[in-house]
């Protein structure tokens, strides 16, 4: 059970959280009240962390997946000595406070990932555990366990109900991620009701079936039992652990415990008083932190400093014995690129037949991966289509995993050192796991699927942008031109939707060489996610002695070809597969005597980031006859073509037919582009 000091510390967490929610008149008191004992046991007895250096690489990772219980985390951070002041907590959820409504990575020291959308944190934690396992496999040597940390998460009913949590848990079980432990706050109440009306499967059996190690605790206040379960979870190295802790939401509140009313609203002044009375806590002052409790929590500082110092010492000795590996790891931890990482970057010769940009991407990835050990990732069961396998660089699976000749093998053996992750048909979890890999650090992680299925992973893409995580997604089969699979597989509105996410770079390259530059950008971009949008079909590799260098991709849009005078009367703009179409149209229009400029515009956001005068060099304001061509929803293009311009786009669902037929039927032909272009020029010539 809990001794008197334990109880004092647990109640300190409880009432710091409750008082902050009450003062803010907003927040979630119920969960911190019930989960305080498990959080206390973990944070004071097991978690390896250094409050004075939240970035210490070999720290255990902790994820509060139930992000709405943010005050629980803020209480722990403040009490154990992170740079989060009592003043911040007293301004919980207020403008400028380091204690925002939900935990935000990069905003509050000690917060590993932004959580709130339920299920994401659990999947992030799976990604972190994968990162640890892969780094340990690559860098640890006998007697040198220099990467050796665990991943913990507190998860709630919502986390286990959400599909993304189930996808990630299924994969974690398959991968036997033994250093992942989740504490399940089994309070059986959600936002609007008890779980008896929505959630009745046996959770322990479900996780058993996934291949997890499960333990059921009946008393959420029994700190020693929680401690023992955490130790048992740590000793279980072959399976991830779920500790199901039966708790009571709003614990201690005489009128709101076990009720959804304790979930997401302040208890109310009277109920706070009654709860304090009930648990034997002084009614005043609010935000009370007894000295004895604080002193106990703050032991984390000395312990953390000692742990980090011992690790630094181990690293020093390791660097003497394995200098190359140590340097490589150090660089990865610092998110630096190895010198010469791009030495083998291919340059593609001009070729009228060309290649699909997905194929070019595959060649680029395989060229750069050997010199870029941090590049790791995979697809959601689409390797043969996305061309994202890193050949010969191993497949990530438990050491006693499949044989080398198992179908789906990329070559190089199945082990935790494998750089190829097999996500299975789990796009949503893939997005969130890739975020976890990036948040862990030391990894340049990518995921891949068809562009249409980016819809299945929009939440983690949005969170990657919000967290400023360096992740890359490779989305192939990027338009109706994919053909026979038909409208279910043909993206139309996805590009516009992705471009609308702030802080996200979306690049749709026109040919193989633009694809190589896009990959350079993706690798070099340190603080935002990058999406590469690639074609299934072959595209001509443009002759760069006739057209501007592909490096223009860095500017988001660039003049590919121009009228000799440099004063066009018409500008054709396109991205990706439609660039070769406008090039062909421009040749015909030029032969008819029109002064035409062709602009390749692979990325709206990179272009928008340019100063206005730079943008004007590409799209001079005086030239108002502008036609954009893109096999996708026209949304967003009007900003570039203006009210005198036009867009050849797709404003309905696609159709099942060979890709070239679909493209023709939807108007992506030289004839149609020329017709629409001439109309624009004619309209300019005829004053209104
Ligand atoms: C994806 C997602 N859907 C809905 C919500 C809104 N929401 C916040 S908490 C919650 C239910 C929480 O229940 P539970 O996970 O059991 O947390 P507890 O009630 O124990 O605090 C919901 C629906 C959310 N945060 N994320």
Topology of this protein?
Elements: H1 4-24, H2 30-46, E1 61-64, H3 70-80, H4 86-90, H5 120-139, E2 151-155, H6 157-161, H7 163-175, E3 180-186, H8 203-210, E4 213-217, H9 223-235, E5 241-246, H10 269-279, H11 291-321, H12 323-333, E6 351-356, H13 357-368, E7 375-379, H14 383-386, E8 395-396, E9 414-415, E10 420-422, H15 427-440, E11 444-450, H16 458-467, E12 471-476, H17 494-499, E13 505-507, H18 512-524, E14 530-533, E15 538-541, E16 558-561, E17 570-574, H19 579-591, E18 596-600, H20 604-608, H21 612-618, E19 626-629, H22 638-641, E20 646-648, H23 659-665, H24 670-685
Parallel strand pairs: 1-2, 2-3, 3-5, 4-5, 7-10, 7-11, 8-9, 11-12, 12-14, 13-14, 17-18, 17-19, 19-20
Antiparallel strand pairs: 6-15, 16-18
Helix pairs in contact: 1-2, 1-3, 1-10, 1-11, 2-3, 2-9, 5-7, 5-15, 7-15, 11-12, 13-18, 15-16, 19-24
The structure holds thiamine diphosphate.
List the main descriptive attributes of the protein structure presented here:
single chain; 688 residues; alpha/beta; six-stranded parallel beta sheet; 24 helices; 20 strands; binds thiamine diphosphate
